[in-house]
Fold this sequence. Notes:
The chain is mainly α. The protein has 24 helices and two strands. It comes from Nothobranchius furzeri (Turquoise killifish).
Amino acid sequence: xxxxxxxxxxxxxxxxxxxxxxxxxxxxxxxxxxxxxxxxxxxxxxxxxxxxxxxxxxxxxxxxxxxxxxxxxxxxxxxxxxxxxxxxxxxxxxxxxxxxxxxxxxxxxxxxxxxxxxxxxxxxxxxxxxxxxxxxxxxxxxxxxxxxxxxxxxxxxxxxxxxxxxxxxxxxxxxxxxxxxxxxxxxxxxxxxxxxxxxxxxxxxxxxxxxxxxxxxxxxxxxxxxxxxxxxxxxxxxxxxxxxxxxxxxxxxxxxxxxxxxxxxxxxxxxxxxxxxxxxxxxxxxxxxxxxxxxxxxxxxxxxxxxxxxxxxxxxxxxxxxxxxxxxxxxxxxxxxxxxxxxxxxxxxxxxxxxxxxxxxxxxxxxxxxxxxxxxxxxxxxxxxxxxxxxxxxxxxxxxxxxxxxxxxxxxxxxxxxxxxxxxxxxxxxxxxxxxxxxxxxxxxxxxxxxxxxxxxxxxxxxxxxxxxxxxxxxxxxxxxxxxxxxxxxxxxxxxxxxxxxxxxxxxxxxx
Length: 512
């Protein structure tokens, strides 16, 4: 120990933890200075781990308990910390730089991290491995990395996965969830991180990138011990609110408000709550309050001002500010921002043509209809709003946007009717979108999404073969439309469900 120095100057775990906290801050603020500081601190943590890593290639006799001549105990922990640093540095690289070279560098870091976790997992499974005093912390680190990679890769669309498989990646959703569950159950340094990743998957990723079928009961079980121990912990109150929200219980509003009151240090955490509050009031069709939170986000937050502007749907705001608010990550514009900018173009004309149901269209992009479907009165309220929008549209002169707007309202009405149990009517509205495919001028994303929703409806009714046919058509017959990647994520999740596979249609053994 170096007396007078800071713990993170000589301790791998202190250094990694400190750098992780700074990275969380950078991810929340999107501030270039915070991103730079976090990146430099993570680089220093990685260098510390590098000095204590094993210099030679791993072998079957490389065990944690073996500390003769070489401190293998330390080396194994250094290896897992090094892999974690690589992964977090890659994430910061994607945020910090906008050129392709940096993007490639970030990709290389991800691949090196993946290969390291894979090798460490093989060591854990080898017959030569023996347990040391801190075996649990090492194994927990491996489970976190292996579980995270398997879960994330398994959710990718097939065409993306094929490219990743070419360079050595593979993913198994069930195995990934199992690894994270095991890591969460143990009392180790990374149990909390495993727990948080599972909560994110069940309450966010399964909704945004899937069909909205996260395990809410499992999420509640994971959260309960933390909420009991830290009843005023803002992050736990946030997840508690999110769980209630996706159950359709909009008493979640109180939890998000309580979450904001629980801490004042990070205003960006308040913004996460404002985002959820904005949608909660949208689900309730309390437009003034929804607009209030969208406006607050557009003024205070720098994550995606374009998206907030689209929810506000103000002609003046959209036409004057939206194009200048666009951001880039890894040299690429955010898909939701490109979508919002396309929608805002109709406000640029001398006589702006308003969007028929801007907040409800954005609600579909974020899979909000799965949430309102849990409560009949919420769904009926949204359906009433859509019917009012349709009546208003019918009384307006036809424009170049009319067919697109009619098809949008058909898709959204179909979703509401499906949630209310009116399956035949819902199918009728999805089919109407397909019948008008050649007449749609701008919103080409409506057709593959109508096929997706029609396929999910058939799947609910047990018409599996018909569902697969519709989903495959949505997957293969359309490209270069708005939010294409997100639609492909959802199609892939629906196909997994239809075909009963745990990952991207490829049987992967129990390995990372």
